[in-house]
Amino acid sequence: MAKKSAVNRNERVKKLVKQYAAKREALKAIANDESLPLEERFEARLKLAELPRNSAAVRIRNRCEVTGRPRAYYRKLKMSRVSLRELGSHGLIPGLVKSSW
Fold this sequence. Notes:
Layout: H1 4-32, H2 38-50, E1 73-74, E2 79-80, H3 81-89
Antiparallel strand pairs: 1-2
GO biological process, one term: translation
Family: Belongs to the universal ribosomal protein uS14 family.
InterPro entries: Ribosomal_uS14, Ribosomal_uS14_bac/plastid, Ribosomal_uS14_CS
């Protein structure tokens, strides 16, 4: 089980990303629009830099829904390999069959 503080921190980051998503997207569009004057684009970059760092989507860490483990994460299942194997062995994941040869 992951530390609760790490899981909670990740939840706070997700909340911030959602809160600032529209503003960040608008500023990025202005900053990357080459038809605008250089000064205006630079202003947009400065405003973008003033936003909280944790409002960037790249700061979100994918974590297992079951244990909170940050590594070996399967995006499709939203869980780590350890949880997948454990739940699969107990037959709790539909369609997952243990291989044997």
